[in-house]
Amino acid sequence: MYVPIQKDQTPYRFEILLGAEPFEMEVRYNADFDFFTVDLYKDGEALVYGEKLVYGVPLFVDVFDQRFPVLQLVPRDDAGLETRVGYANMGETVFLQVVE
Questions:
Q1: Which whole number is the average pLDDT over 7-15?
Q2: N or C: which end of the chain has fewer CB within 10 A?
Q3: Residue 64 has what pLDDT?
């Protein structure tokens, strides 16, 4: 499963079920340095601001908190050819994949 990122609509917020739990995510794009960030909310509470999407690195990997999703969210491409996440490849070859 992939989390669809609407790069042309940034910044924007959306609701998503991760496992059986509802969350909100806000996606932002930094045009000066060509990267995306994600804010994560649960029950209206901000859990994290500005988590950078780094190719192949799970989001929130350094957080040990029961309020965060059990499932991992990892930006990567199926072919394994990319090395970073930027505007040109987000949603084209790189996708935010949900991993159990």
A1: 96
A2: C
A3: 82
What is the pLDDT averaged over residues 39-50? Answer: 96
Domain hosting 95: range is: 2-99
Q: Count of domains in the chain?
A: 1
What string of DSSP letters covers the chain? Answer: -EE---GGG-SEEEEEEETTEEEEEEEEEETTTTEEEEEEEETTEEEEEEEE--TT--TTTT---TTS-SSEEEEE-TTS---S--TTTBTTTBEEEEE-
pLDDT at 11: 97
Is-contact 27 37, C-beta < 8 A? yes
Q: How many CB atoms lie within 10 A of CB 3?
A: 17
